[in-house]
Amino acid sequence: MDLMSYIDKGGIIVYILIILNVIGFTIILWKFFTLPRKNAMINKIKNKVTVNSSILSQIEYEVKKLESGLTIIKNIATIAPLLGLLGTVIGVYKSFEAITQNGLGDPTIFSNGISIALITTIAGLIVAIPHQIAYNHFISMIDGIELKAKKELVGQD
To answer: Where does the MotA/TolQ/ExbB proton channel domain start and stop, copy by copy (predicted)?
Structure first.
């Protein structure tokens, strides 16, 4: 069975997971290219600090801007396994419905629903795991940028 057969068998839930995956990985790639420049971010904060605004509030403002998009990644990491679980429930339901209509004489009737259940569970986990890892990585990077900015600009540790 090829990949497209699995996707088709998983149904609408797998297609939703693929769309979420594309959205999430677009944000992940964007963050991978924009976040690693810690010194540039510190300099940006230095240049934006004026006499009227405090350094700490400017650091907080810039950190919030760095966090943009991360909520989407976190939501995808949270929602994907739930969608997989929904697919599992739907697959098991279809299995029991098939048994109710046709009896237990043919095990292939039952296996189709179980197959759907497993495919959607796998797809949900495949989407969730890298998004959770990326989210944790980016939050760690942003925390490091914030600490470095506070240390260099305010003298806090």
So the answer is: 41-147
The answer to whether the CB of 13 falls within 8 A of the CB of 86 is yes
For residues 146 and 40, the answer to whether their CB atoms sit within 8 Å is no
Q: Which domain holds residue 63?
A: 3-80+125-153
Question: What band does 53 get if pLDDT is binned at 50, 70 and 90?
Answer: low
With beta carbons less than 8 A apart as the criterion, state whether 49 and 58 touch: yes
Half-sphere exposure of 27 (CA within 13 A, CB side): 23
Radius of gyration of the chain (CA): 23
* Residue 110 resides in a domain: no
Q: Is residue 14 part of a domain?
A: yes
Whole-model pTM: value is: 0.82
